[in-house]
């Protein structure tokens, strides 16, 4: 199975995603901001189509457009503080409008379907390099800003009073989410990327432990979901993104069931 280069590339991408998504996902879930992943995933589709239109790297174009969308969301939060869902709807509408317009125009130089459903087996060396760089950037940034990100996750106002640069960190976090999504769309697919950001964290939260334990558990669930989806999709001949999402959902259901059985 791993005698083929494309399978080795796919495994490398899977490991990167398994590490990266929970690093970002745990903060998104705890901030009760889960739908930002779905919104920025649709933004990444607009970035992909722009990259294909101008013959640039779709992953880099996706990162650039998704990062700008994330920054725009944070900018709009100043004017719609009580209407977060409205902000996400605005950005999602604009992104989908751009993507549909470009796809239907017939001017794209390649098919965008691979980015909708994901295809680990067609990952190129350039995709691997971009994935490695963005993953390293995101993980290092989370490590360096771990405590401050944790503070603003639980209470932004108290963090601001304590001297934490909340606005700067929120903009930085928008870049991290953009990196996580851009890294994942080529292999997992735009339609199911949100599942890999949220479902492993949802499973880990069922353990009802502290933050560090929950984070480590979400990493374990992420590895189990992605690697299981990787192998299963290879043997059944299905898109890896869909199989991975179903695997992650199955692990969540199993965790809930076991929790109910073991409850005193």
UniProtKB/TrEMBL annotation:
Record's subcellular location: Cell membrane; Membrane
Domain of life (superkingdom): Bacteria
Entry keywords, A to Z: Membrane, Transmembrane, Transmembrane helix, Transport
Listed transmembrane segments: 6-30, 59-80, 86-108, 129-149, 169-202, 214-236, 242-262
Major place of residence: membrane
Name of a matching Pfam family: ABC-3
GO CC annotations on file: ATP-binding cassette (ABC) transporter complex
Biological process (GO), any one: response to zinc ion
Membrane-topology descriptor: Multi-pass membrane protein
Family as reported in the entry's similarity comment: Belongs to the ABC-3 integral membrane protein family.
Name under which the protein is recorded: Metal ABC transporter permease
Native source organism of the sequence: Dialister succinatiphilus YIT 11850
Lineage of origin: Bacteria, Bacillati, Bacillota, Negativicutes, Veillonellales
